[in-house]
UniProtKB/TrEMBL annotation:
This is F420-dependent methylene-tetrahydromethanopterin reductase. InterPro entries: Bact_Lucif_Oxidored, Luciferase-like_dom, Luciferase-like_sf. It comes from the Bacteria. Gene3D superfamilies: Luciferase-like domain. It comes from Mycolicibacterium cosmeticum.
Amino acid sequence: MRFSLFVHMERWDESVSHRELFENLTELTLLAEAGGFSTVWIGEHHAMEYTISPSPMPLLAYLAGQTSTIRLGAGTIIAPFWNPIRVAGECALLDVISNGRMEVGLARGAYQIEFDRMMPGLAASDGGKYLRELVPAVRNLWQGDYAHDGQIWQFPTSTSVPKPVQKPTPPMWIAARDPDSHDFAVAHGCNVMVTPLMKGDEEVVALRDKFETAVANHPEVPRPQLMVLRHTHIHSPADPDGWRPAAAAISRFYRTFDAWFGNSTTPVNGFLDPSPESKFAGRPEFELESLHRTAMIGTPDEVIERLHTYRDLGVDEYSFWIDNSMSHDEKRISLELFIKEVVPAFQ
């Protein structure tokens, strides 16, 4: 099982500049590369300070010039906000810049608050049809001349310029949760990325089972890869309560996610306050003790034990989701501990 880093610039107030956040993201990526991580993943989000990434492409192109081995993942491009020609061309250009280190993740999108600004009138729940049309169109554009007459996009004969370095195509990943998404991904030769969010490892098993069902239903397709993405924080065994600050920070992250996902409040200059803790009375998944069990929080030995379980389930890639509302220094120390104490157990 290999490891990757899922990272964004996160801004919780105006005390930290965007330039400093950019430098922090770069430092974490270089640490991950030196520590043997396979990939750095950066997603796409709009007009929200707590997840800053209007496009993963500029960040990944910059990182391509700062690194030499780590792969560069767009995780994920939001299908309804793009045109297939643009996806194909920009991804291929990143592949050229990085000399064949590009990976592309694609998703239907989740936040209605983003759809209201980027695609007014479109429900986020309808994003799946864009994803299903985008994936084969991009792959065909990478191969050569291709004309498209779909439900959503129509264009005359065109092609991806430039073409990717990787042949036949760069790896493609689909963010999947329901069985139909797993089936679509596998049927189209795409790898699958899943996140159990605030659920326990039983959710990892359930998502793995959906993936395995899709694999069994498509014996004609070479077996794709499965990635699990999870909030991760490592603390020293010398501090038995070291999990508490991480659990509190991740609770803040999820309460902020809830505020954005609820789409009931107008953001102020890109900020929304986290939903109040009182809203989640009777919701045990928001309690710190629960987050200690569900998020990947623990000492190196505790995390190694859980990750052995993931490996035995058939997980090919574990992605260290470092976004959690903690300070950069706290994130760096956690990542360094993971590299020093956890990674060697899987080499």
